[in-house]
Amino acid sequence: MKIGFLGLGNMGGPMAHNLIKAGHQLTVFDLSQAAVTSLVDAGASAAPSIAALAQADIELIITMLPAAQHVKSVYLGEEGLLANVAPTVKLIDSSTIDPMSAREVATAAAKNGNRMIDAPVSGGTGGAAAGTLTFMVGGEQSDFDAALPVLQAMGKNIVHCGPAGNGQVAKVANNMLLAISMIGTAEAMNLGVSLGMDPKVLAGIINTSSGRCWSSDTYNPYPGVLDTAPASRGYTGGFGSDLMLKDLGLATEAAKQARQPVILGGLAQQLYQTFSSQGNGGLDFSAIIKLYAGDTHE
Ligand code: NAD
Q1: Is 111 a catalytic residue?
Q2: Ligand 1-lining residues (CB < 6 angstroms)
Q3: pLDDT tens for residues 265-282?
Q4: Whose CA is nearest to atom 15 of ligand 1?
Q5: How far from chain centre, in Å, is Cα 183?
Q6: C-beta separation of 218 from 258 below 8 A
Q7: pTM exceeds 0.85
Q8: Where are the beta strands (DSSP E) in 184-262?
């Protein structure tokens, strides 16, 4: 399939690489030249602008952008996608944004004649590289069915969650739990180690006991426990703390609208806010363990 891909960062880059590996023809755009070059080296064509990408010979556009303001400006801006794309081109936004913004963009796409789904992902940069992401999809069943073969080149679990915006609802709930479980794992690991446990032994116990969770067994925040985790490479790459803070803002805002309490979610938001205000927003979100252990964890 001929696919336009916009947003080639920590997630979008490896996702686009997997589409090329699966035999799709890609036209790409990103503000970062280095990100574009990596895809061009793998066989993609580079578009010089968002408008040029929209007008290229493509059947589908996938976007993977940081936050709602980027998604709105890329889709709705004067030089954006909707102003330049043919109505036959299908649209998939995989960025994590609030459900209301996702519905606003989907409504504008529908007015433009374009079929669109929201398809945020879970699974981290490791899942993006391995092609094992979970996709949470909001939109019409027929659009979900049409997108499935393309999403399968990037992910393993692909779930239709309901109408437009519902993919984002599922994502926001999952990421709020992820933040809470990461903080809990950091707290428990730091307590155990400061009381004399070897971190690898403690993680091994947790991972075969009732405290087991993804934050501990796949993404442990304690350095050296897992060679593949950002904790073992100075908390670089991975999922930035500021992105997690953004997702917690989405969760608490959505909770306000639904009049539902998110007590631990609110606390997690404040802890990430504190961490970010100390200049740590660019570190992977597992670096929150530094709130407990200071810079002992480098
Ligand atoms: P990132 O910051 O690494 O990448 C975003 C990319 O978008 C960058 O390359 C940037 O240059 C590009 N970009 C921004 N504005 C643009 C514009 N106007 N035109 C073209 N390109 C533009 O972010 P990421 O980690 O890849 O995350 C992307 C989305 O996926 C976010 O919504 C995030 O919440 C979500 N997400 C991230 C992870 C993770 O582990 N990193 C996991 C699940 C979901």
Answers
A1: no
A2: 6-12, 29-32, 35, 64-66, 70, 74, 95-96, 121-122, 124-125, 238-239, 243
A3: 999 999 999 999 999 999
A4: 70
A5: 19
A6: no
A7: yes
A8: none
